[in-house]
Amino acid sequence: MIKIAVNGAAGRMGSRILALANEQPNNFKVVQTFDLDGRSESLLPYVKGKKKLKCDVLIDFSGPDGANWSAAAAHLSKKAVVIGSTGLDDEFMRKIKTIAKGIPVALSSNMSVGVNVMLALVVEAAQKLSDDFAVQMTETHHCHKKDAPSGTALMLLRAIADVRKWNTQRTTKEKGRIHSIREGEIVGDHTVLFSGPSETIEITHRAQSRDTFARGALLAAQFVSKKTRGLYTMKDVLVIGKI
Questions:
Q1: Same structural domain for residues 222 and 169?
Q2: Which residues contact 57 (CB under 8 A, 6 or more apart)?
Q3: For the chain, N or C: smaller number of CB within 10 Å?
Q4: In whole angstroms, what is the distance from residue 121 CA to residue 49 CA?
Q5: pLDDT digits (tens, 9 = 90+) for 3-20
Q6: Does the pLDDT of residue 198 top 50, yes or no?
Q7: Phi/psi at 141 (nearest 5 deg)?
Q8: Is residue 242 predicted with pLDDT exceeding 50?
Q9: In this structure, what CATH number is given to the domain that contains residue 87?
Q10: Are residues 79 and 95 in the same domain?
Q11: Which range marks the domain in which residue 13 is found?
Q12: CA-based Rg of the chain, rounded to a whole angstrom?
């Protein structure tokens, strides 16, 4: 049984992680919850090193600031951490790479199994299609989502940029090809369009429930609980190879 803690426990994602974990008592035990709403424990004493986390794995779906706190708390407590928060900047990425030298970290902008299969398909398409195929993306989320483009859209863009060997300036310019829509209560839709001279390829993923991300986060927690250190993605967790 894995003892988990959740930062962002009162949020849409955190509440689903807690619910699914509680449905699997043989696999998970929730031992701590953290949030800024006052209904859960504050993570601040753990960030300052005054307390140690009681869990095996800390799962974070709190946002950019909370993710920094989670990384620091896990580092000081020497616990594994799963980070699914989006909107993370380059400074955070530099910090987490250093932290991962001492503890196991699973980091992904999208924990969905389906999205990570989509990522593999998008990479294969980018490899096999020439630059004559222009790339466009559309991502649609609920009206409460703060970051745009979404972390998933940027993850897909970076994967294409790596394949096509775009430099940083070109990649930044290509962000303008991501069309972001915020409306209603849409969980998350992503479409990557490769438009060629006489044909178009469209790869789409639609999430019907946040449970798909919550299940992925719990899979990641199981994965990092068996590691001693290192930075991992959902590709590592799901062992997605070539398709």
A1: no
A2: 2, 3, 4, 5, 79, 80, 81, 82, 221, 224, 225
A3: C
A4: 43
A5: 999 999 999 999 999 999
A6: yes
A7: -140, 170
A8: no
A9: 3.40.50.720
A10: yes
A11: 2-111+211-238
A12: 18
